[in-house]
């Protein structure tokens, strides 16, 4: 299955085909599997959309040869796009809200991209606005718009989803993933529902985020430390399709922090807060299946670990909860 057994021509060919590994803190009889996206060359799930979106945009002529990619990004997308842009002969500029991790910004810089910071208080909305202003100032620039571009979802429909089903011979009961743009969950969910229409689909967000409003849940907006998932304004989350989602779970920062430490200490996973939030939720869903509260096409749960904790060491991710800056 893996494409990594022979020498490869460029780093782009190492994207995807990541391992699916069983987690060991769930109920007996309902295995939980996590897809380890830190195995990608830029060490996150966003390498997938970097390659997929830029290749399709070049093919379609939406992006000129030698053109410039400008993207508002929490960081991992910038790294994914920077790797792909560099190898595909494109320039890259990223607009990043200040609160996001410095490690990510240093990596984007090393990959040859330019970084522009926007005030934390303006959120992703402010970064999106600034990216469009910049694109208007340049002739050959395009904003791929990961928050709105169907190619984001398609990347996961074409790669992440099929990889999961191939690894488990189609025996998938539930799919659980955090939502930033929601591209990851929507792509996997669309593929999953085509394989079996009753596949249970759960979205994960931090407590304080508003994705739950899509399913008419009461949500109270607040700051959160979990990085990479969640929204403060659902108008920016154009990819989220409520029809593909059975439930949106809100995970408190404390639970994610405890779980990311447990995942490292007990299971050897050096993963960050969004993976930990997904793990907490995957265990909850697995328990519901084990207790007979949820009926799914198979007794298994699949989740996604989007990136690695190494990217957040400067924020004290493994220190006490209060010392973790988030
Ligand atoms: N976790 C991390 C660490 C991320 O950077 C992202 C992307 N913002 C996600 C999860 C969520 O992925 P998606 O945008 O596909 O919903």
Task: Describe this structure as you would to a colleague.
With 326 residues, the protein is α/β, with parallel strands linked by helices. It folds into two domains: 11-39 and 160-315, Rossmann fold; 46-142, 3-Layer(aba) Sandwich (Rossmann fold). The chain has eight helices and ten strands. It has helices at residues 46-60, 76-87, 102-110, 123-137, 150-167, 183-195, 253-267, 273-290; strands spanning 20-23, 32-36, 68-72, 91-97, 114-118, 141-142, 174-178, 200-206, 247-251, 301-305. It is globular. Residues 74, 76, 178-184, 227-229, 272, 274, 306-307 line the site of 4'-deoxy-4'-aminopyridoxal-5'-phosphate.
What would CATH call the architecture of the largest domain? 3-Layer(aba) Sandwich
Radius of gyration: 19 Å
Strand composition percent: 15-25%
Shape: globular
N to C succession of SSEs: EEHEHEHEHEHEHEEHHE
Enumerate the distinct ligands. 4'-deoxy-4'-aminopyridoxal-5'-phosphate
Tell me the number of strands. 10
């Amino acid at each position: 299955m893996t494409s990594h057994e022979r020498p490869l021509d460029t780093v782009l060919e190492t994207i995807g085909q990541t391992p699916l590994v069983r987690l060991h803190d769930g109920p007996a009889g309902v295995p939980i599997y996590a897809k380890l996206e830190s195995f990608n060359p830029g060490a996150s799930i966003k390498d997938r959309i970097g390659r997929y979106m830029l290749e399709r945009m070049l093919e379609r002529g939406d992006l000129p040869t030698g053109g410039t990619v400008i993207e508002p990004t929490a960081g991992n997308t910038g790294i994914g796009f920077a790797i792909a842009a560099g190898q595909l002969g494109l320039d890259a500029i990223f607009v990043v809200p200040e609160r996001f991790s410095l490690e990510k910004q240093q990596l984007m810089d090393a990959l040859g991209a330019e970084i522009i910071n926007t005030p934390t208080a303006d959120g992703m909305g402010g970064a999106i606005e600034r990216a469009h202003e910049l694109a208007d100032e340049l002739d050959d620039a395009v904003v791929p718009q990961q928050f709105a571009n169907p190619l984001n979802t398609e990347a996961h429909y074409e790669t992440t989803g099929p990889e999961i089903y191939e690894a488990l011979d189609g025996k998938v009961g539930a799919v659980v993933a955090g939502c930033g743009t929601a591209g990851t969950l929507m792509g996997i969910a669309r593929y999953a529902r085509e394989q079996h229409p009753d596949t249970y689909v759960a979205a994960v967000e931090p407590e304080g985020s508003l994705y739950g409003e899509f399913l008419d849940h009461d949500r109270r907006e607040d700051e959160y430390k979990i990085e990479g998932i969640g929204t403060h304004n659902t108008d920016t989350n154009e990819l989220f399709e409520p029809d593909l989602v059975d439930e949106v779970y809100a995970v408190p920062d404390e639970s994610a922090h405890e779980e990311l430490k447990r995942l490292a200490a007990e299971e050897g996973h050096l993963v960050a807060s969004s993976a930990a939030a997904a793990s907490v939720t995957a265990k909850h869903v697995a328990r519901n299946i084990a207790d007979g509260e949820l009926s799914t096409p198979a007794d298994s749960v699949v989740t996604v670990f989007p990136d690695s904790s190494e990217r957040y060491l400067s924020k004290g991710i493994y220190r006490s909860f209060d010392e973790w800056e988030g």
